[in-house]
Every structure is written in structure tokens, then in C-alpha cells.
Specification:
Its cofactor is heme b. It is a multi-pass membrane protein. Its EC number is 7.2.1.3. InterPro entries: CYB561D1/2 (IPR045150), Cyt_b561/ferric_Rdtase_TM (IPR006593). The chain is mainly alpha-helical and 222 residues long. It has one domain: Four Helix Bundle (Hemerythrin (Met), subunit A) (Up-down Bundle), CATH 1.20.120.1770. 77% of the residues lie in helices and 0% in strands.
Length: 222
């Protein structure tokens, strides 16, 4: 029996709500698992995986999910409040990422190891630098008059699109980190595959959110 358009719409919305709820759980659960694994404070290095997981799995994911029409934890608040919360979370994410980068760089220096010679290290560096640039670019949304030839709607679209690229870089860095000797020694078997699915799931949810926002904007123009 064929589904009606209304039924399909409800089913699609239910799937989006379920995926968004799963993304919230993963965003919090993944850093918690990393904290148990790394035991922050046991060594200088132990702070690196925790800070990076907090930056790219928890804070940045929640900063983007704030604008989800189905699963935002602040959807009952005004857009102004959500924008401020987005800014606060993104700045905290950038701070954690910078601290994580500084710690691993100093730790490698202490141990006489080379810097940024692996795909994980290079991708992580690029993700942190990109996050800094993205935060700086967000200032244009607060002061759109600085870009006289750009409409506010277009600035929002490009900010969301470039933000998605930065988020995917951060998730890629997390996934490459899970291929490191430290992680693969501690996490094996099905647990490793489950861990790899965490940033993959949140990436798919965020990509769907951004693509839907883009489609909505195109429809509203016609």
C-alpha cells in the first residue's frame, strides 16, 4: 500500500527527530567515553584527546544542532538567544581545540617527536585553523554592513556551508585519531567500529540539517 504525502512527511520528520536525538546522545557520550579511556590528568597527553573530543564532538555539534527545527534544545527560545548560544559554544569549542593542539604540540616537543607528520596531525591542525577562521567570519553576520555587496541571507548561507566544511574536518580528525596506536591499543573489536560510527552519525545529521536549510531558502525564493 502506497504511503500518502502526509504520511511520508510525518515519517521523514520522525526519522529526523530520532536522528537528532541520537546525535545529542553521541555528542555527549563520545567525549565521556574518551574521558574514561584517557583518564585526564594521568599524563600531559591525556588532556589532548579529551579536549579535542569536547571541541568537535560535543561543543561544535551542539552549536550546530541549536538551529535544528526538530531537535534544538533551545527551539522554544528566540533566534537571538539561539545565535548567542551558538556563538558561546563555538568559542568554547575553539578554545578547547586550541588547548588540545597546544598540549599535543608541547608533549611532542618534550618527547623529541616530529610535529604534524601524520594525516591525523595535519587534519587536526587544519580543522583548528579553519575553526578559528570560521569564528572570525561569523563576525560578518553580526556586522553585515561590512559586506556591502552581500545580503544577510547570502552571508548566513555561506557561513553555514563553510561551517559544515569545518565541522567535517573536525570529525575527520577525530576518526583519524581513532586509527592511532594509542586508540587502537585501548579499543579493539566491535567497540572500535562503534566509536568510529559516532562522528559519522553526527556528520550525517548536520549535513542533512544544512542541506534542508538550503532547500528551504531556495523554495522561499520562488
Amino acid at each position: 500500500m502506497a504511503l500518502t504525502a502526509e504520511t511520508e512527511s510525518r515519517l521523514y520528520r520522525s526519522l529526523r527527530v530520532a536522528a537528532g536525538a541520537a546525535a545529542h546522545l553521541v555528542a555527549l557520550g563520545f567525549p565521556a567515553a574518551v574521558a574514561v579511556l584517557a583518564r585526564p590528568g594521568s599524563s600531559l597527553f591525556s588532556w589532548h584527546p579529551l579536549l579535542m573530543a569536547l571541541a568537535f564532538s560535543f561543543l561544535m555539534t551542539e552549536a550546530l544542532l541549536i538551529f535544528s527545527p526538530e531537535t534544538s534544545l533551545l527551539r522554544s527560545f528566540s533566534r537571538k538567544v539561539r545565535v548567542r548560544a551558538h556563538w558561546a559554544l563555538q568559542l568554547l569549542a575553539l578554545l578547547c581545540a586550541l588547548l588540545g593542539l597546544g598540549i599535543i604540540t608541547y608533549n611532542k616537543h618534550l618527547n623529541g617527536k616530529s610535529h604534524f607528520v601524520t594525516w591525523h596531525g595535519l587534519t587536526g591542525l587544519l580543522a583548528v585553523l579553519y575553526a578559528g577562521g570560521q569564528c572570525a567570519g561569523g563576525v560578518l553576520l553580526l556586522y553585515p554592513k561590512l559586506m556591502k555587496n552581500w545580503t544577510l541571507a547570502k552571508l548566513k548561507l555561506y557561513h553555514a556551508t563553510s561551517g559544515l566544511v569545518g565541522y567535517l574536518l573536525g570529525c575527520a580528525s577525530l576518526m583519524l585519531g581513532m586509527c592511532s596506536l594509542w586508540f587502537t591499543t585501548a579499543v579493539t573489536g566491535a567497540s572500535w567500529y562503534l566509536a568510529m560510527l559516532c562522528p559519522l552519525l553526527t556528520s550525517l545529521v548536520i549535513m542533512n540539517q544544512v542541506s534542508n536549510a538550503y532547500l528551504y531558502r531556495k523554495r522561499s525564493q520562488h
